[in-house]
Design a protein that fits this description.
369 residues; alpha/beta; Aspartate Aminotransferase, domain 2; 2 domains; 4-stranded antiparallel beta sheet; 12 helices; 13 strands; binds pyridoxal-5'-phosphate
């Protein structure tokens, strides 16, 4: 048997040092004390007052461990969406749910399939398990079901689809998700990431929860970080077939959601008024931003159904990298997406009216309009 060369220092297992650590949206602008953060698709309206009150009240319980089963939140979600409570998985953000699924299913040499511009967390968890990441081309910046199916091979264990997607914002009607699922082998887990699903109101859209009820290999994930504005508290969940929920339950950290997170999430879930205002705000300002950015000669990636827009710069002339720096110098933080293979684009979270106008004014100056 081959004996590895002795090393003078501890060496992480194979593949770890090839992983590119997740790059979060910028939170600081050089020389600007209070920049406007439009770089991480957070809820620009903040969070529900009811959730904030629950968070504050949780201060009395800081000395105790959280309920490891997340029972109250589990019950609240199960009742709201008419789901079997024991099929729910909770995590430190939906990021952890992806990670747990990767950990539960991938062996070295297996692979996951995702879209070319997929959200970075899917791949990190796969590579950590010494699995391969196979990217299906996304013509027009949008998942193409045939390309995904063509990319699947005998070693594929999971397919990750964010619908709507990040960073593109594009989405697929449920008929396409259905076609994908019906053509996948039954031993492959189809993960439908609904981080932005609540913003998608087209009647042909579905997050897949209804469908997942009667499926053996579909997992639908949601988060409290976007619509509910609780990104700081790190609460995400997944609805999985019982066998998958039971596998994940064996490997998750015992206390992976906190008491403040669980309690605030329950209140956020019940605050329909805050949710409606958040959605209405995005619906009001996304088309405005798209139209204004288009007017500046930028190429808007459509159809977008999330709380952000992706804007492309012409191949020659002003660049996305320079635009991001120009905005940052003015305290406007947007997301540069070169790490997603989109060097000519910037991603802008929908802001308050004054933020959106400030972005457009600054970009008009940048573009020399
Ligand atoms: C597509 C997508 N999925 C999942 C997440 C993860 O959210 P969280 O871990 O906060 O639940 C994000 C966050 O940016 C996202 O853009």
């Amino acid at each position: 048997m081959h004996k590895p060369e002795p090393s003078l220092r501890p060496v992480p297992k194979s593949g770890i040092m090839d992983i590119h650590a997740y790059i979060p949206g910028k939170a600081k602008a050089e020389g600007v004390a209070h920049p406007i953060k439009l770089s991480a698709n957070e809820n620009i309206l903040g969070s529900s007052d009811r959730a904030r009150a629950a968070y504050a009240a949780a201060a009395d319980q800081l000395h105790v461990y959280p309920d490891s089963r997340t029972t109250l939140l589990r019950t609240a979600i199960a009742e709201r969406y008419k789901l079997e409570p024991e099929r729910l998985i909770f995590g430190c953000g939906s990021d952890e749910v992806f990670q747990l699924l990767n950990d539960a299913f991938l062996e070295p040499g297996d692979n996951i399939v995702q879209g070319q511009y997929a959200f970075a967390a899917f791949a990190i968890g796969a590579r950590k398990n010494q699995a391969e990441v196979k990217n299906a081309p996304e013509p027009d910046y949008r998942i193409d079901v045939d390309e995904v199916l063509n990319t699947v091979d005998a070693r594929t264990r999971l397919v990750f689809i964010a619908n709507p997607a990040n960073p593109t914002g594009t989405w697929l009607p449920f008929s396409e998700i259905l076609r994908l699922h019906q053509n996948l082998r039954p031993d492959i887990v189809l993960v439908l990431d609904g981080a932005y699903a609540e913003f998608a109101d087209d009647p042909t859209f579905s997050d897949g929860l209804d469908y997942a009820r009667s499926s053996e290999n579909v997992v639908v994930t949601h988060t409290f970080s976007k619509l509910h504005g609780l990104a700081a508290l790190r609460v995400g969940w997944g609805y999985a077939p019982m066998a998958i929920a039971s596998a994940v339950d064996r490997i998750r950290l015992p206390f992976n959601t906190s008491i403040p997170g669980q309690l605030a999430a329950i209140e956020a879930l019940n605050d329909l008024d805050f949710q409606q205002r958040s959605i209405a705000h995005v619906n009001r300002w996304r088309p405005w931003l798209e139209q204004q950015l288009g007017g500046l000669g930028l190429d808007i990636v459509r159809p977008s159904a999330a709380n952000f827009v992706l804007a492309g710069f012409p191949k020659h002339g002003k660049t996305a990298v320079a635009a991001e720096a120009f905005l940052s110098a003015r305290g406007l933080l947007v997301r540069q997406v070169t790490n997603y293979g989109l060097p000519d684009h910037i991603r802008i979270t929908i802001g308050l009216e004054e933020h959106n106008r400030a972005v457009i004014n600054a970009l008009a100056e940048f573009m020399g309009r």
